[in-house]
């Protein structure tokens, strides 16, 4: 159990898996909203824990021995015999879960594809209806935790499509399976023990505790550790029920975002317009500077009006290159990324929240003809850039910030627009063909 205690602070950061009026469109779309002060994750990054590569999938006999060992650990951790016997000892091996955990995406996903699948007119319309339906509840949550209502609705919409799908796998089965698998045993052992603590507290019955293949649960897809830290009983029924109680789920999401550092008086960011001469090597989350500096570089609102005067720092992002939309990302953007480590996800949350609050669609739509790269092609791209002196790190097949930065530096050397986007011209110069994909 010593290892569990040592790992717990790290897992707490990784788990989840973000008196004023509820903000109107004007509040949400100003840099500093007038709000009085009073977080997938669903899918867990393989970097969240020490990874032990293994092609072996455990047998039923090995799983049975593993459950015996975990039962002893659970008892030492203070879990009741009743919970151990009713849940852990009845856990079933689910080899599909192991397959999903080890599966890597074959192809890259363009920003256009990601965004257009998630920020839809249907989702915006439903979000606005729910914003109105739960207005009183959301006002009380904002007063307590400082998170404006449209953001909570946006997280809800992206996590489970407003509660329409929580996953369909018993959480103890999935976590026990992953804890017994060697690849990320430490991480999932802690989540398994914490899931048993939730059951021990009586928040949910064992047969009702269902979730994603990775063990994320309820309306906002909390991992068990995040549940224990942030779940609240907001409806007063003496249970923290993130499956059946909308008040509990939304208030818990708000508490989580507050704990991650949400700034009540700021928005997430905004779409902006760049001048033709913009130096794209300035883009990227690591380049954080005052809005006044972006103004000097010619950055304006998306409608071409001046950026407001605000004492706020921001980074500039161009997720689909210079031909797509550009965004300024403020501190709350980084908070969203602590919920889910994806720039695409954070932009989708912010834009969905904006549109739910009354804003229109993107002024500049992302191009839908971006090359779709196979993982092997991305590895080749990274190897080619490394050989040419543009450091991408260890080739891993993932188009992350380091690779985008290296692409931008290569583009700059070639006299191209250095937006860090792997367009067809860049790929051709690096000898990578995309005709077959």
Word description of this protein:
This protein has 437 residues and is of the alpha+beta class. The chain is built from 19 helices and 7 strands. It has helices spanning 2-14, 25-28, 60-76, 81-86, 95-102, 111-118, 121-133, 135-145, 149-160, 171-180, 185-200, 224-230, 246-259, 291-296, 331-339, 343-356, 375-387, 401-413, 424-429, and strands spanning 169-170, 210-211, 269-273, 284-290, 300-301, 313-317, 326-329. Strands 4-6-7-3-5 form a 5-stranded antiparallel sheet. It has a two-stranded antiparallel ribbon with strand order 1-2. Strand 6 and strand 7 form a beta hairpin. Helix 1 (2-14) packs across helix 11, helix 7 (121-133) packs across helix 16 (343-356) and helix 9 packs across helix 16 (343-356). The chain is globular. The model is unreliable at 1-53 (pLDDT under 50).
Write the layout of secondary structure elements.
Elements (H helix, E strand, L loop, with lengths): L1 H13 L10 H4 L31 H17 L4 H6 L8 H8 L8 H8 L2 H13 L1 H11 L3 H12 L8 E2 H10 L4 H16 L9 E2 L12 H7 L15 H14 L9 E5 L10 E7 H6 L3 E2 L11 E5 L8 E4 L1 H9 L3 H14 L18 H13 L13 H13 L10 H6 L8
Antiparallel strand pairs: 1-2, 3-5, 3-7, 4-6, 6-7
Helix pairs in contact: 1-11, 6-16, 7-9, 7-16, 8-13, 9-16, 10-11, 11-12, 12-13, 15-16
């Amino acid at each position: 159990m010593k290892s569990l205690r040592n790992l717990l602070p790290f897992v707490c950061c990784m788990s989840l898996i973000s008196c004023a009026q509820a903000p109107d469109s004007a509040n949400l779309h100003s840099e500093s909203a007038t709000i009085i002060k009073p977080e997938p994750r669903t899918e867990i990054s393989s970097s969240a824990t020490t990874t032990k590569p293994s092609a072996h999938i455990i047998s039923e006999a090995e799983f049975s021995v593993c459950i015996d060992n975990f039962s002893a650990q659970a008892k030492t951790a203070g879990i009741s015999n009743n919970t151990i016997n009713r849940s852990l000892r009845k856990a079933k091996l689910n080899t599909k879960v192991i397959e999903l955990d080890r599966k890597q995406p074959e192809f890259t996903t363009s920003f256009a594809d990601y965004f257009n699948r998630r920020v839809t007119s249907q989702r915006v319309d439903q979000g606005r209806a729910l914003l109105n339906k739960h207005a009183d509840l959301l006002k009380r949550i904002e007063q307590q935790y400082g998170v404006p209502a449209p953001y909570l609705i946006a997280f809800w919409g992206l996590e489970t499509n407003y509660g329409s799908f929580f996953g369909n796998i018993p959480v103890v089965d999935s976590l026990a399976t992953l804890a017994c698998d060697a690849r990320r045993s430490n991480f999932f052992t802690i989540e398994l023990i914490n899931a048993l603590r939730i059951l021990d507290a009586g928040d949910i019955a064992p047969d009702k505790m269902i979730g994603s293949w990775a063990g994320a649960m309820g309306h906002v897809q909390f991992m068990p550790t995040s549940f224990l830290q942030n779940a609240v009983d907001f409806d007063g029924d003496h249970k923290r029920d993130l499956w059946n109680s909308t008040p509990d789920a939304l208030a818990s999401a708000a508490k989580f975002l507050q704990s991650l550092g949400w700034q009540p008086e700021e928005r997430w960011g905004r779409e902006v317009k760049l001048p033709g001469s913009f130096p794209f090597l300035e883009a990227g989350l690591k380049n954080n500077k005052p809005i006044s500096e972006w103004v000097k570089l010619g950055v304006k609102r998306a409608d071409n009006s001046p950026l407001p005067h605000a004492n706020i720092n921001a980074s500039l992002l161009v997720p689909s290159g210079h031909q797509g939309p550009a965004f300024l990302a403020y501190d709350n953007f980084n908070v969203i990324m602590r919920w889910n480590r994806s720039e695409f996800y954070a932009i989708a949350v912010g834009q969905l929240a904006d549109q739910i609050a009354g804003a229109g669609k993107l002024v500049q739509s992302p191009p839908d003809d971006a090359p779709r790269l196979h993982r092997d092609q991305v590895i080749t791209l990274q190897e080619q850039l490394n050989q040419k002196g543009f450091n991408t790190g260890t080739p891993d097949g993932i188009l992350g910030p380091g690779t985008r930065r290296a692409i931008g530096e290569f583009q700059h050397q070639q006299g191209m627009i250095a937006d860090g986007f792997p367009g067809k011209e860049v790929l051709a110069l690096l000898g990578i063909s995309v005709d077959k994909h």
